Amino acid sequence: MRILAFIMFALLLGAGRASAWEEYKYLDQGVAIQFPTKPQATKSIYDSVYAKGLASMVYSAEDDHVLYKLTVVDLTGRPDTGANFLNEAANRLQREGEVLFTDFPRVYQDARSVFGVSLVVDRTDGSRVRTSLYHHKGRLYIADAIVLPARGDKDMTTPSRYDQTIRFPPDGRFD
Amino acid sequence: MTRKAFGLAGIAAALFAAPAVAHHAFAMFDQSKVLHMSGTVKQFEFVNPHAWLHVAFVNDKGDTSTWSFEGGSPSQLVALGWAPDHPRVGEMIEVGFRPMKDGSRGGQLMSVKFPNGQRVCSNRGCGDGTGDIVPGVYRPQE
Question: What global pTM score does this model have?
Answer without folding.
Answer: 0.80
